Amino acid sequence: MADEFMQLSDLQMDALKEIGNIGAGNAATSLSMMINRRIEMSVPQLKILPFPEVAEVIGGAEKLVVGVYLQLHGEAPGGMLFVLPLSSALTLADMLMGLSIGSTQKLGEMEHSALKEVGNILVATYLNSLTMFTGLDIYPSVPSLATDMAGAILSAVIYTLGVIGDHALVIETEFSEDNQQVVGHLFLLPEPGSLNTILERLGVNV
User: What is the mean pLDDT of the chain?
Assistant: First the structure.
């Protein structure tokens, strides 16, 4: 099964990317309404990776990042983790709070709250599109935020879940406002069997 997840067909990946695109579109609308300014979002890349390679996507295990984590309950349990390099998180905080880029030099309580809300919106809109396509009942916990090295955040997620599947679904997420762009990553970290459950419900099971 582990090898099969690395050999998904174009149709299977298209189905997953369509879910990501719908989620991004709805998230952009929600964010724009929240801050009363237009934020664009897109999903340039979507891939399924072996879990040990997840940290490399965000710059390596020692990369300083901000992570917003929500645990998933229901018919396809697991977790979702939104990760940004610290420098990108500062830029996104500026965008969200209507400040000139470079204004935010450290993340305080207000910035944490704004970034947690972004993670909450991203996960909620992605799950809404996923449940619309699959009919699965999946619901998230409240978000938690940490600033740490990527490896430490991933280790904490594994500890929280207790058990995790061999692979993660990686959704690259690009935020843009005017000419400013920020790229983050949204990870679906399924418990064993959950990813296959999702693919089966999509009618594209391996």
Answer: 86
- Taking each helix axis from N to C end, the angle separating 109-134 and 10-35, rounded to the nearest 10 degrees, works out to 140
What CATH number belongs to 4-201? Answer: 3.40.1550.10
Place of tokens 């965000």: 58
169, HSE (Cβ side, Cα atoms, 13 Å): 24
Beta-carbon contacts of residue 86 (< 8 Å; ≥ 6 apart): 64, 65, 66, 107, 147
Helix (H) / strand (E) containing 42: strand 40-42
**pLDDT at position 192, please?**
83
Domain range list for the chain: 4-201
180 pLDDT band, cuts 50/70/90, is confident
pTM of the prediction?
A: 0.87
168-205: b (≥16 Cβ within 10 Å) or e:
bbbbbbebbbeeeebbbbbbbbbbeebbbbbbebbebe
Q: What pairs with residue 82 in β-bridges?
A: 68, 186
Distance, CA of 5 to CA of 168 (rounded, Å): 10
Q: How far apart are CA 152 and CA 22, in angstroms?
A: 31
Q: Encode pLDDT of 132-141 as tens digits.
A: 989 999 999 9
Give the C-alpha separation, 172 to 178, whole Å: 19
